[in-house]
Write a structure and sequence with these properties.
alpha/beta; Rossmann fold; Alpha-Beta Plaits; 3 domains; 6-stranded parallel beta sheet; about 40% helix
């Protein structure tokens, strides 16, 4: 650290793509405010990027540009390394090397921390440096800060978030236009809302990385991405979005983590959410996170979950925090995961079979007498109570003269293992003509 009380803190950027260029631009534009808040300047002094010419065009003459990230880590002039490369590969090596070199690290890399966070935070703890990651969850929304600091008086009960903009955009479009998933995905790719390979987003993996980080901070547990239940939106059908709407619900892909009697729930999957909840009305690529705490009740954080400057806003807030650190003895810093390392909890992450929630079921059935009675009989035998039943007219479902119909059932809460058994029995009925669609329902009350 430069010892002069007002000496600027010097930053090395690893990667100057979308987020890196935003960091550079916002630091330049708002340097007066940032210096006023941090008590010292924050200067990008070196940038590493494979495309040296493009990087030079972005940062101009006054900043050193190299094509080797390790040169930034080895530079004695650099106080903070900002890792914006992403992924689990080289990024992990570089973050650990930066820590070993005694540099603070700011990162937007949710995948890296969700999978290798335990090792990375321990290394940082041993070296007395910070690893800050506000930008890793929900872009510009300061949700990590809210959980680590703003809500630190609370016992957190649950968190539910729309934390992937790509999938929320796709679901909004499916609802608006009544189109199927595949058609909307193509459109989202054309508009740049979805990557050429959208797997991480549409299969729920990205949201699960972020939910894993929030779960660790909320409940004081280690990051355990491998224990998360992860389900994406690829199997959702336009008709389910329509039926949900008729019943007063929207379908959203939520990252959920919840304190339960036996442990912690950590899951990502499509959910029916009542239309009257604010979060149900979050459209397009926007993000929103609901947090329920015992003292504060429900709070909601809404904003842009991605993009150059929103993500840069979060990176720079972390830089400001690190710039203030020399005045704080290491034992009094806010810990990486909000709880002191010795106070972490051994609460297990529960398997999905032990999760208790309510359900939307859609059964394609033969349009004949007694079907409804048989289906509801199976649910009754399993001790699952029914909240609502919607039976479509056969000609609505299969056209004129159809002999098939859709049966939609909303249930009250039950344990997933029991629902799995009941579904297997319903599926084996000769009058059930297709695989049953199940979507979990979250009231978020």
């Amino acid at each position: 650290m430069s010892n002069h009380p007002l000496g600027p803190i010097r930053v090395g950027l690893l990667g100057i793509g979308t987020v890196g260029s935003g960091v550079f631009t916002v630091l330049q534009r708002n340097q007066g405010e940032i210096r006023g808040r941090a008590g010292r300047g924050i200067d990008v002094t070196v940038v590493a990027d494979l495309d040296v010419a493009r990087a030079k065009a972005l940062v101009g003459e006054q900043v050193k540009v190299v094509n080797d990230a390790r040169a930034v880590i080895a530079d004695p002039q650099v106080d903070i390394v900002v890792e914006l490369i992403g992924g689990y590969g080289i990024a992990k090596q570089l973050v650990l090397e930066a820590i070993a070199a005694g540099k603070h690290v700011v990162t937007a890399n949710k995948a890296l921390l969700a999978v290798h966070g335990t090792e990375i935070f321990a290394a940082a703890q041993n070296k007395g440096v910070m690893v800050a990651f506000e930008a890793a969850v929900a872009g510009g929304i300061p949700i990590i800060k809210a959980l680590r600091e703003g809500l630190s008086a609370n016992r957190i009960d649950w968190i539910a978030g729309i934390i992937n903009g790509t999938t929320n955009f796709i679901l909004s479009e499916m609802r608006d236009k009544g189109l199927g998933f595949d058609a909307v995905l193509k459109e989202a790719q054309r508009l740049g809302y979805a990557e050429a390979d959208p797997t991480f987003d549409i299969e729920g993996v990205d949201a699960a990385h972020k939910a894993t980080l929030m779960s660790a901070i909320a409940f004081g547990i280690a990051v355990q991405f491998d224990k998360a239940h992860v389900e994406g939106i690829t199997r959702l059908e336009a008709q389910d979005i329509r039926y949900a709407e008729q019943l007063g619900y929207r379908i959203k892909l939520l990252g959920i983590t919840k304190r339960a009697a036996q442990g912690v729930e950590l899951r990502v999957h499509p959910c029916l959410v009542p239309v009257k909840r604010l979060i149900a009305n979050v459209e397009g690529a926007m993000n929103a996170v609901m947090v329920q705490g015992d003292a504060v009740g429900t709070t909601l954080y809404y904003g842009k979950g991605a993009g150059s400057e929103p993500t840069a806003s979060a990176v720079i807030a972390d830089l400001v925090d690190v710039a203030r650190l020399p005045t704080v003895d290491p034992l009094n810093r806010v810990p990486h995961l909000a709880f002191q390392p010795g106070a972490m909890s051994a609460l297990p992450v529960l398997p999905m079979s032990q999760v208790c929630t309510s359900y939307y079921l859609r059964l394609r059935v033969a349009d004949e007498a007694g079907v409804l009675a048989r289906v509801t009989g199976i649910l009754a035998d399993a001790g699952i109570s029914i909240d609502a039943v919607l039976q479509r007219e056969a000609d609505e479902v299969g056209g004129e003269g159809s002999n098939q119909t859709d049966l939609i059932i909303l249930t009250h809460d039950c344990v997933e293992a029991r629902m799995n058994e009941a579904m297997a029995k319903m599926q084996s009925l000769s009058s059930v003509l297709a695989p049953i669609t199940r979507i979990r329902k979250e009231d978020l009350a």
